[in-house]
Amino acid sequence: QILLPILTKIKRLLLLSGTPMLARPSELFNLLRMLRPDIFNNFLDFAYRYCNPKESQYGMDYSGAANTRELHYLLEGKIMIRRLKKDVLKDLPPKIR
Length: 97
Hints:
40% of the residues lie in helices and 6% in strands. It has helices at 4-7, 25-35, 43-50, 68-79, 85-88, and strands at residues 54-56, 59-61. The protein has a two-stranded antiparallel ribbon with strand order 1-2. A hairpin with a 2-residue loop joins β1 and β2 (59-61). The longest helix is centred in the C-terminal third of the chain and has 12 residues, at 68-79.
C-alpha cells in the first residue's frame, strides 16, 4: 500500500519471477496496476471483466475467472516477457553445487 503510489509513477518498472503466475485474476490486479496503470487502474472494472464476481453471504466474491483468453492476450501483448528455460539454457552459467 505504501509503495503503490510511488511505483505507479516510475517511468520504468520491471517485476521478475522465476515461476509462472498461475494465480486468480483478482490476485494479479495490483501487480498489473503497478506495471500498466493506464490499462489496469480500477479494480471493479477489472473484476467485472476478468473475475466473474458472485454475490455471497459475505459480499462479493472475486475469486472466479472470466474472459481468460482476452486477459492472456493482454498479458502477452502488453505486459509479459516470457522466456522458457529451454530457450535460455545456453545463456545461463553452469550450475554450482
